[in-house]
Amino acid sequence: MIGLSLRQLSAFVTVARLGSFTRAAAVLNISQPALTVQIQRVEEQVGTKLLDRSTHQVTLTPAGRDLFPVLTRLLEELELALAPQRADGSLRGKVRVGCFPSVAAYFLPQRIADYRRLHTDVTFLIHDTTAQKVLTLIRQEEVDFGIVDGANDANDLECTPLIVDHMHAIFPRHHPLEGVAELTIEALAEYPLILLDPRSHVRKIVDGVFLQMGRLTEPSVEVTYMHSAIELARAGLGIAILPALCVPLEDSQLAARKVDHPAFVRRMDLVKKRGASKSPAASNFYEFLLSNGIV
User: Fold this and answer.
1) Are 241 and 188 in contact (CB under 8 A)?
2) Strand, coil or helix: what is 240?
3) What secondary structure letter does DSSP report for 10?
4) Of the four listed, 7, 63, 241, 291, which is most buried by Cβ atoms within 10 Å?
């Protein structure tokens, strides 16, 4: 692709993103015939067809699907390299983060809001998914870094502690446990429990601690999402066990108590691929998070 210009590469990425030659030509401010010539030039250089054209839409061929993310990132990084900062010193660009859904919902929003007050032109792409998928995204450099657990043994990844999240019991106001000074596992086990799916990291922590105490977890209700557990607790169907990040702080109907056990903690790291380059905005937000974690 050495013989291709940035204009031609941008033409391919724009058509692929919009799925339309007409809309892409309008965005690029060129005629549709001129855009067609540019796409043909890209396909000639690559040596294969990249786009399938029909009357109603344009779709990527398998080769096009492989090339699209590579060129998209190339153009983004080039734009940032040429102009990573505004005249007032604030940064611009995109930051890509992989994390648990609970981190995306309860940890990142306020921190992104605080960061955007300093750097208004920085945008974010958040992949909220499982830990394994986040680690894959980090290794494939599809995200700049991730917020997960369980990566400390990986030689190709660099992990820095970011969040220490103590487990809490959540229940309706005026529940007998509301007045307990120290909530133990033994006291908790006397009530119906609302727990997350056994595959979740939180559930594995709960099961592990109960097992250490010689008990098995037998949930009254089992759910996939943390918000579901909170609403079930609100209805009086049991006690939800969730990380502190997810505790509704100003809820007149619910109370929460930290569970008194040293292992009842979810720990998460800020994880990046060793040696991987990041945009100025991504590097800056990485350092910002380290200064605004919960450790």
Assistant:
1) yes
2) strand
3) H
4) 241
113-136 pLDDT per residue, tens: 999 999 888 999 999 998 899 999
Which region, left, alpha or beta, applies to residue 174 given φ > 0 means left and ψ of -120 to 50 means alpha? left
**Per-residue pLDDT tens over the stretch 222-275:** 999 999 999 999 999 999 999 999 998 888 999 999 999 999 999 999 999 999
Which of 145, 71, 138 has its CA nearest to residue 108?
A: 145
Residues 23 and 7: their CA atoms lie apart, in Å, by: 16
| 262/209 Cα distance (integer angstroms) | 9
Q: Which domains does the chain have, with CATH numbers?
A: 6-82 (1.10.10.10), 92-158+272-290 (3.40.190.10), 163-266 (3.40.190.10)
In percent, the amount of the chain with pLDDT more than 70 equals 95
On the 0-12 / 13-18 / 19+ scale of CB atoms within 10 A, 42 is buried
The first and second tokens of residue 115, run together, are: 């960061």
Beta strands in the chain (DSSP E): 51-53, 58-60, 92-99, 121-128, 145-148, 157-172, 193-196, 221-223, 239-243, 254-258, 265-273
